Amino acid sequence: MSFLQILRRQPASLRLRCACRTYATDTPAAAEQPKPAKAGKKAEASSQASIPTSSCPADTILPGVNYLKGQAPVVALPDEQYPEWLWNVLQPRVYEDDGPGGKKERMERRKINQQAIKDRNFMQTQ
């Protein structure tokens, strides 16, 4: 490690103040027993309702989100005040199969090509 890399590193005091991610529930996931699935839409609705949506309770101060000087701290809102699409942003997109040459086929081919490029670039560095 060069001398300049040491100087560019973030000080330990700043690393300790970073916001930590936590789960909304205090119970560990391993302790929960899966419930038998019921037939119908009620089972899907109950399983979705049991999944916590946000990682912090309402009125929690979110450090590091507000980066402007002299502004009030950013506070988490209740889950009902956020738009519904926010909870599905990180889920992968699902394309319907619309035949040969359709959107789904093009996206799969693009993903395969991107992986081939990554593999080829990795092999060139070896």
From TrEMBL:
Main location: mitochondrion
Biased composition (Low complexity): 28-37
GO cellular component: mitochondrial large ribosomal subunit
Chain spans, region Disordered: 26-56, 96-126
One Pfam assignment: Ribosomal_L37
Keyword entries, A-Z: Mitochondrion, Ribonucleoprotein, Ribosomal protein, Transit peptide
Localization, UniProt: Mitochondrion
Coiled coil (residue ranges): none
Keyword Transit peptide in record: yes
Gene Ontology MF terms: structural constituent of ribosome
PANTHER family xrefs: 39S RIBOSOMAL PROTEIN L54, MITOCHONDRIAL, LARGE RIBOSOMAL SUBUNIT PROTEIN ML54
Entry similarity comment: Belongs to the mitochondrion-specific ribosomal protein mL54 family.
Protein name: Large ribosomal subunit protein mL54
Organism: Pholiota conissans
